[in-house]
Each structure stands twice: as C-alpha cells, then as structure tokens.
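Course assignment 3, question 2. Fill in each field.
Student: A.L.
Task: Predict the tertiary structure for the chain below.
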Amino acid sequence: MPSPLRIAILASGRGSNFAALLAARDRGELPVEFVLVGSDKADAGALQLAEMASIPTLVLDPRDYAERRDYDFALFERIAASKPDLLVLAGFMRIIDGDALKPWVGRMINIHPSLLPKYRGLHTHRRAIKAGDREHGASVHYVTAELDGGPVIAQTALMIGPDDDENTLAARLLPLEHQLLPAVVALIAAGRLSFHADVVTFDGEPLRKPLRWQDGALVR
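Answer field:
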C-alpha cells in the first residue's frame, strides 16, 4: 500500500477549507497525512483545529521581518522541514515572493473564490455582483509567481441571485468550496493529477480546460 500523501496547510483565518479536508480524511475519502498547519496569525482558527487534531502547527509573524521576502523564505524553510508532498493554501491571505515559492511550483495549490481568470485578488464576491455577472464560483489552481494566475485545475459555480450581496454570495459559495478542494486533493493523492513543465496532466493527458464540479464529482 502506498504511503499517504503528506500535506502542509497555510491559512490565515478560521480554517473552514482545512476543516473540510480534515473531515474528508476522517471519512476515509482522502489518503493523506497532515504534517503541518502554518499561519501568519497566532489567533487563526485553522491553528486551533490543527491542535485539536494533534497536527503540528507553526506561527510566523511577518512583523518580525524587515522585508516580505525575508519572511517568505523563512516561512518556506520551516515548511520544508516538515517534508510535505503538497502544500495547500487554504485562505492564506498573503502574496508570496516568487523566488521563495519557485521550488514549490507543481507542489502547491490554492483555492480562490472566483471563476479564474476573473477577479484575481480580493473582494471577489463584491466585484462579481458589481459587474452584473450571472454566475460566480471558486477555483483550485496550481500556484505560480503570478498572483492567482497559475493553471486552473478545477472549478465550481453557482448562479448569482437577484437579492445576493457579497455576504450572502460568499455564504452560499463556501459549501461548494468545501467539496471542491478535497476532490482536487484526492486526485493528487491518487496520482491522477500533476503539473510539470507548465503542463497540467490529468489521467496521463494534458488538461486543456478546468475540471468542473458536477453532480458530486469532478468531470472534464
């Protein structure tokens, strides 16, 4: 039996996407081992979840570093010490130095609350409503030096209702995020998904467009 995929998590907030990964593991749907949960905020809910699950934690305060670049290299040095196979950004609210993340390209994914390439960065729900979009969603993508610009692996979508504001839209999208991220991690853990030489491969073939979450599964 192959060893479980070793996963490190970075999160800045409550950790609901991390909680979804934990729940999927506990249901036997994710053959993974969580080796570290790190944060830039000592009060992040993700850290409390990790502690309750007896997962090692790391807090590194950006204010202790004169330069963002110095912080990022220090953070990734500590993450590397836990020897993860995959690093998952699950609500990590910092822009990462491109040189610091370069060794992790192909081994780092992020979940972002928009249908990329639309609305990179912050306030995605507000921007989608303001633009008059009919549809909104979330994307899981490989992380590269370009902000929210790495190859998109999979997406989930929902219709924007006439009474939606940014808060209601975010609340309706979140349960879909909690399905999407574990499904993508499961594909990586199964060896069905990889990223090499700027090409995402799914089941041995180049992935030409993002997988879609449909009827409880990811489909081409």
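Instructor remarks: The domain at 5-219 is CATH 3.40.50.170 (Rossmann fold). The mean pLDDT is 96.
Grade: pending
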